[in-house]
Amino acid sequence: MVDAKKTQTTVTAAKELSADEKMEEAKRYTGELVNKALVAEEAYATYSQEQVDKIVAAMALAGSEASLALAHEAVDETGRGVVEDKDTKNRFATENVYNSIKHEKTVGIIERNQVEGYIKVAAPLGVLAGIVPTTNPTSTTMFKILVALKTRNAIIFSFHPKAQRCSIHAAQILYDAALKAGAPKNIIQWIDKASLENTTALIRNPKIASILFGNWWSRHGACRAAVWQPVNGGRGRQRCCLYRSHRLFGPGC
């Protein structure tokens, strides 16, 4: 005779993490991403203008070639918009943005003023956080990657949970192209599992130099409480921040 008590299987439910525990786990996870990005950024900051331009050109081409496929993915995943419009946005974010910035000098001395006796030297900010919405997931991702790497910055993304797959695919396409063109590993990263805790921990990390976000996210309390002043990084032409005596005083166009 079988003893039911001895054969009974006991299932113990996983303990639900408290809010504080979730936040601590998010800090640990995003902190690892930031530390890897810092290593990549340190290497990338030594690249020449020619090396940077080669990487940016390769990414723009890869993004443009994948534009239609990414448009289909964005519409399928988010249920927003139409494929033709998404394709137009993707091409603008790659082809038009690239043509706008490809001749700009972003390494070393970018201006000499003999009359007033000063020079301007371009320097990267460091590691950027990129916040991507569900409305323009693939185009915004590719735009932010192009302007970040053109100015020798590393970038870590937090994608909208309802547009996670297509956003990651867009980032992966440009990241693969960047690596083939000579970019350092981890110069582009993203949060694999979208959550408010992970996003908040990322943008509040003191090692994040600046945040690229859209107008929709500026109302979020975590963004307003961030260590660094956020920069509106939609699909416009914002590309850098300028320093005067090592102090951030405004976004440059």
Automatic annotation (TrEMBL):
Keywords: Oxidoreductase. Signal peptide: none annotated. It comes from the Bacteria. Residues 31-213 form the Aldehyde dehydrogenase domain. Its EC number is 1.1.1.1, 1.2.1.10. GO terms for molecular function: acetaldehyde dehydrogenase (acetylating) activity; alcohol dehydrogenase (NAD+) activity. Pfam families: Aldedh (PF00171). This is Alcohol dehydrogenase.
